[in-house]
Design a protein that fits this description.
Blueprint: E1 5-11, H1 15-25, E2 33-39, H2 44-53, E3 57-61, H3 67-81, E4 86-90, E5 94-96, H4 101-110, E6 114-123, E7 126-132, E8 135-137, E9 144-146, E10 163-167, H5 168-174, H6 186-196, E11 200-211, H7 228-244, H8 251-271, H9 275-290
Helix pairs in contact: 7-9, 8-9
Length: about 290
Amino acid sequence: MDNKLAIIIVNWKQYELTSKCLSSIYKSKFKNFEVLLIDNESNFKKLKNLSDNFKKLKVFQNEYNRGFGAANNQGINYAIQNNFKYVMLLNNDTEVDENFIDPLINTTNKDNLIGAVQPLIMNYNNKNSVWSAGGYINKFFGYTSTIKNPNRNLRLDWVTGCCILLKVDIIKKVGLIDENFFAYYEDVDWSFRIKDLGFSLNLVNTSLVYHHGSKSSKNSSFEGNLSPKVHYLNFKNHIYLLRKHINKFNFLGLILYQSIKLFFYSVYFILRLRFNKLRIIYQGIIDGLKLEIK
């Protein structure tokens, strides 16, 4: 398994998008990889059609949706147990450039203090538009944002779980993804933990990935496009992240920002008569405060 890369893709009911992602990966000029497909709430018939088209997949079937963190940890554990050198997390709603792997690996090998890297991620429907050039964290107010300027800074506050590459040796030091997050903010937490060990996080803007935009979180209904669960996870996980890394932030700034955030969400949901979402964001805050920190 010398220098071999494990590419971990989590699928949840988006077999068509996953198929497009896999097609682009197998056109890659870098060949020393294995794709680990983690299928949450697996549909046997649809998965079989996918497996028939892509023969070299290592498939993990989950009877229910275990979430982004737990599913990726399944693949990470497999990579550790089978002596892979590198691990990549890659969203299934992406398509990749054929040359995207080599620059990522070359960058991680260039400096032993580089903990993880991400590519430059463009919008699929507008390939001149940046979806993510890495992440920024405001230490006073505690909010995260996505960098849109790929030339701003190659060293990042956090790397997006849409596509991360790092060495297995780094994972052994930092530990697995915190499954308390289920989905959203787990990449920020992982990034913080990597940086806490003295490693940097880098953007590799010569590596290109194209992002379709998540469809699994959308829910067209009277309650709006985003499902209530997305709003719940947004509030719960943000609170949990801030509690877990409270020493990095200004406490008064956190209280102020969270209060303003809650006020505007509450007013918006009341005016739009979205009372289920109103209820669930308050439940998210409660659960984020109660959750035991890992």
